[in-house]
Amino acid sequence: MAKVIAVMNEKGGVGKSATATTLAYLLAKRGHKTALIDFDGQGHASIIYGVKNTNKLEVTINTLLRKIIEDEPLPEPDSYILKTECGVDVIPSNSQLFTLERNLCNVDFRERMLSRYVDTIKDSYQYIIIDCMPQMGTPMINVMMCADSIIVPTQAELLSTQGLTELLKHYQTIRKNSNHRLRIDGILITMDSPNTILSAQVHKLLEQGFAGKVPIFKTHIPRSIKVAEAVLYHKTICEFLPDNPAAIAYERFADEFLAIERTEETEVCAVG
């Protein structure tokens, strides 16, 4: 059964889609059966994985959730999941997802609609990565209800760190009252400018504000225009320019993430 990982931050432009798509690619590259759910109406993750016009898609995550809301049967996964050359299975998104909040308004158990969908594919994967929309609301509560863990990309700038406190509050509420298994894997510093005063200040601020509360990944992703350029070619940075510093850092991040996973599995086995 898959582990479900949400890549989220309430602030946009911090590298969520780059992190979600690249982590999915690197997990698949390392032999793990991986799916990626694009849960942002902008469809950036879908575009990175080859969809040229997201609004022409017949089936998206929003379509699937509408069927669940209306108690209609879901199509077979093979009919809508996008199979990629790198081995990542993609459940795409488009601008229709922006209507989800309204569609969920009067639905019973509305915070569990995404969980009901994920349960239909969970046995087919080892990891399911969810690329999240930036704003908090009922759709994002859905994500927290179905996720096992959260990765929080945070740009190495002061304003990008300010949404972390609110996100942490939402996380603590959901974990305490509803999804007791939910945890934060860590904060991932992205778009970093090493050896600058600003970068050092942001690192210090994060350590002071969250040390002992939330893990912070040792790996930092350096700023590189090539990450954005890779999107033009519908690739992650690791496919586009594997020797780029950002690509190398993402490789280290994937290894760090998997090392943490192995440690936790060992601890669970020891307790069991």
Description:
There is one protein chain. With 272 residues, the chain is α/β, with parallel strands linked by helices. It has one domain: P-loop containing nucleotide triphosphate hydrolases (Rossmann fold). It has twelve helices and eight strands. The protein has an eight-stranded mixed beta sheet with strand order 3-4-2-5-1-6-7-8, with helices on both faces.
- What is the second-level CATH architecture? 3-Layer(aba) Sandwich
Number of strands: 8
Question: Can you tell me the residue ranges where pLDDT is under 50 for at least 5 consecutive residues?
Answer: none
CATH uppermost class: Alpha Beta
- Terminal CA distance: 18 Å
**Quaternary organization:** single chain
Integer count of domains: 1
Annotation field: number of helices: 12
Average predicted local confidence, pLDDT:
90
The biggest sheet amounts to: 8 strands, mixed
Outline of the structure:
By secondary structure, the chain is of the alpha/beta class. The chain has 12 helices and 8 strands.
